[in-house]
Design a protein that fits this description.
mainly beta
């Protein structure tokens, strides 16, 4: 069951590649999380080997969206992430909704460097205790992108802390950091690294993965399509169970032009 979202994403990537014509360039804009375009992301993390859970795998399918707006007169990006998680159980696997994360980023420029900062909120929308924290959480998010002649580099940092919810569930205090490196190649191809580092101050599941993958940007009329795959391996972890020793990150992004 855990493998199905991965196969579906790979199939959609291959179909899109065949339906759209390749373009030269555009990789930086297509991979920049601060690009002010309406964006739909279909992302999937398949963990084939979990620390402390022998012979088990897990999967997390993420539906993400980005909506530019100017409420209050300043350029902002509203971003949401809704996961569908598949977790190992004593009788196999269980799939259910995870917790909804929303953030609103105020975007600034300092020379060529782009910065986005804003509040973050997590709602306990999970359908099962195994796929969510059972807590309302609040925090902040920050994104810094430094364009380069060869591509882009930067990072995404978030911090969230629980403030309400199920009293029987553990509190949450989580810091994440996602280094982002995109190296552009000819004909829309690019190399990428974007593994997310997790530091759990309340639990025991902190870990640091490193990733190396590739992708390609396509143009279908005014719509930009972006498909990629990035294997990731955990290079440091604590003793907590359930940490992925390795995982495969597969994604398909669609950017729509403003006003369309």
């Amino acid at each position: 069951m855990a493998r199905f979202p991965v196969m579906a994403l790979v199939a959609s990537v291959l179909l899109s590649a065949g339906a759209a014509r390749a373009q030269d360039g555009g990789q930086s804009e297509a991979n920049n999380p601060l690009t002010p375009k309406i964006t739909l992301n279909l992302h999937n993390y398949y963990a084939g080997d979990l620390s402390g859970v022998p012979d088990e795998d897990a999967n997390q399918f993420l539906m993400r969206g980005l909506l530019p707006h100017k409420i209050g007169g300043h350029g902002q990006l509203f971003r949401f992430t809704l996961p569908v998680a598949t977790m190992p159980t004593a009788s196999g696997h269980h799939t259910d909704l995870g917790d909804l994360t929303v953030m609103d980023l105020f975007v600034f420029k300092r020379g060529r460097t782009e910065v986005g900062v804003g509040p973050l909120l997590v709602a306990p929308t999970a359908g099962d205790d195994r796929t969510g924290a059972g807590k309302w959480q609040a925090g902040a998010a920050g994104i810094l992108i430094a364009p380069q002649e060869w591509g882009i580099m930067g990072g995404i940092a978030t911090y969230q802390h629980s403030f309400a919810g199920d009293d029987d569930r553990a509190d949450v205090s989580l810091l994440t950091f996602q280094p982002l490196v995109i190296y552009n190649l000819p004909k829309g191809w690019y190399l990428r690294s974007s593994a997310i580092w997790n530091v759990d101050f309340e639990g025991d599941t902190s870990y640091v993965p490193l990733g190396a993958g590739f992708g390609k940007v396509f143009q279908a009329g005014d719509v930009t399509l972006n498909a990629f795959i990035e294997p990731q391996i955990t290079v440091w972890k604590d003793d907590g169970p359930g940490v992925p020793n390795w995982q495969a990150f597969v994604g398909f992004n669609v950017q729509f032009p403003i006003g369309k």
